[in-house]
Amino acid sequence: MKNTLIEIYTDGSCNPQLLIGAWAALVFVNGKKTILNGTENDTTHNRMELLAVINAIKHVEATLKSKETLHVYSDSQYVVNLNSRRTKLEAKNFITNKGTPIQNLDLVQALLKLIDTNSIEFVKVKAHQKPDGTQNFNREVDIIVRKLVRENVIAND
Q1: Are 149 and 17 in contact (CB under 8 A)?
Q2: What angle do CA 126, 37, 35 make, to 5 degrees?
Q3: Which secondary structure element, helix H or strand E, spans residue 123, and what is its range?
Q4: Under 8 Å CB-to-CB from 2, ≥6 apart: which residues?
Q5: What domains are defined for the chain?
Q6: How open is the CA angle 148-152-153, to the nearest 5 degrees?
Q7: Euclidean distance between CA atoms 7 and 100, whole angstroms
């Protein structure tokens, strides 16, 4: 039986002054592409990065029955290194040194749960690469989120 190849490219973006954000994911299952995206108000860049990954994983869970390894490509160090910070976060009960809950606690915990129930390989990719003639899905997903943010900024003007 042939394994299913699942590749996910994610990105999130936010206008920091207006707190208008967008997330997007390109989900490839054996080469077939699905585009997922959404927008949020009163948000941050890191929330959008987390939502992109969470929504992509949930999409795969809902559409595929098999439990294959998900290859998640992200330019967000925050997302890619989350699992390696897990022990420290859990030891501190997700509380900062100032005694407040960490930012994005709800999404951090949601992603950690998804990591527990799926086989996920995170791959850090370079952000905002210039076009060089090769297929670059990280650049494609970046273009999608930037466009969504621009459209929402104009719509909220």
Answers
A1: no
A2: 80
A3: strand 120-124
A4: none
A5: 6-155 (3.30.420.10)
A6: 115
A7: 36
* 70-120 residue pLDDT tens: 999 999 999 999 999 999 999 999 999 999 999 999 999 999 999 999 999
For the chain, how many helices (H) and strands (E)? 5, 5
Torsion of CA 126, 75, 128, 6, to 10 degrees: 90
Nearest 10 degrees: Cα torsion 95, 101, 104, 110 = 70
Contact 43, 156 (CB under 8 A): no
Cβ–Cβ < 8 Å for 6, 34: no
